[in-house]
Amino acid sequence: MRKRFSGNFLMLVVGLGVVFTLCQAMEVSAQEKPIVIGGTLPLTGTFSATGKWVEKGYQFWADEVNAKGGVLRRPVKLIIYDDKSDAKEAVSLLEKAITVDKVDLLLGGYPGTACTAVMPLAEKYKMVYVSMGGHMKSFSQGYTYSFGSPPLMGEWWYLGFFQWLATVPADKRPKKAAVYTMNNPIGLALMESLYKGCKDLGIEIVIDEKYNLPLTTADSMITKAKQMKADLLFANGMFPDGVMTLRACKVLGYSPLAIAQGIGSVIPEWTKELGKDGDSVFSGTSWHYKLKYPGNDKIIKAAKEKFNEEEPPLYFGFGYAWMQTLQQGVEGAQGLDQTKIRDWFKSNEVKTIAGNFRFDEKGLPKPFVYLTQVIDGKAELIWPPDMRTREAVYPKPAWK
Predict the structure, then answer these.
(1) How many whole angstroms separate alpha carbon 139 and alpha carbon 119?
(2) Which of 174, 192, 256, 334 is the most buried (most CB within 10 A)?
(3) Which residue, 220, 212, 222, is CA-closest to 246?
């Protein structure tokens, strides 16, 4: 009887050991299985130059976290499809990533038109989507799984400019504004903060005109602004038409107190194209590599060492910040349950290289934008004061 007990006990111990070993193996296997994160970017086509920098930001984040052991002790794997700069293609390919590839998490897309198109898809499949968004309209549809961290909000674009301008003595501020805006959703989104700012500071808008892209000449617009003696110019366009507008200002001898540009002056190509003529132009941004938030030093170092870029490209930083946010949501929720990640975002602060954010019911942080001005060929931070890297150049110097 004693022998039988000893034999049974031994079998039990061996059995428990086998079970324990199997559990350990299953746990190790689960930990080693990568977290698959998928989405689309414009790697060819109209928006490919920018899309490739977002991709580099995503990959830099993935390499960094994998070197530290991954997320939830699991490596991450990226699946990035080329949507060829087509929003419809972005929707089709993202649905493939969700339904065929069975990705665990979604990547944010670019540009805003693609984000606007895929946000309903993220809501349909109840998957968290962190991106730039497609301006306020895309965040006003009642979606609960989409977040902007940071968002690129045209409606907030000139908030920093007018906050800074309010610090200029009233008798030295512009009195009349000429506003020229590209006739598309991006351009029209810029008008909200512009109208409010001009009204609050008593600046009369003497010209408010729209134009279609591509702009073939800015001469007639600038001639009219000069004739109306507008001492503040808003060039609410993209990079090519912004360059054209600045050149027309110089040729026609139009030198207002300040020029504010829509999109394009914060990238190095602005100075490469215009030289000193691109200086003194104000603009907004949602991220800048000189922001005093932890992590920007790594971005600067990576840009120099990996890509030979003295200034980290704007969308390299955006891509990295969006992944920082997603990682914090996953780790905060302690898993890949999308609803738990969403709910964690709704009640916690995230910390990124673009700032620290809490999200409202739309998935947005409180309205913010950083004011930049091109000084000596570089986009410097002007506002808010605690982030300032240079004092503003005002009034704008005469053309040379």
Answers:
(1) 9
(2) 256
(3) 222
Sequence-separated (6 or more) residues with CB below 8 Å from residue 218? 180, 241, 244, 245, 247, 248
What string of H, E and C letters represents the secondary structure of 240-269?
Answer: HHHHHHHHHHHHCCCCCCEEEECCCCCCHH
CA pair distance 238, 185, nearest whole angstrom: 12
How far is the C-alpha of 40 from the C-alpha of 118, rounded, in Å?
10
φ/ψ of 212, rounded to 5, equals: -95, 145
pLDDT band at 102 (very low <50, low <70, confident <90, very high): very high
Token duo for residue 277:
């003529």
- Between CA 147 and CA 357 the distance in angstroms is 11
Q: How far apart are alpha carbons 253 and 163 in whole angstroms?
A: 28
CA distances from 135 to 216, 224, 227 (A): 27, 30, 34
CA distance 115 to 85: 12
Q: What is the pLDDT of residues 257-307, one digit of tens each?
A: 999 999 888 888 899 999 999 999 999 999 999 999 999 999 999 999 999
Under 8 Å between Cβ of 371 and 382: yes
Residue 389 to residues 168, 378, 384: CA-CA distances in angstroms?
18, 11, 10
Residue 217 CA: distances (Å) to CA of 5, 63, 187, 206, 360: 97, 45, 18, 21, 42
- Other beta carbons within 10 angstroms of residue 197's beta carbon come to 21
pTM greater than 0.85 (yes/no): yes
Question: Above pLDDT 90, what percent of the chain?
Answer: 87
The structure tokens 């390299």 sit at 316
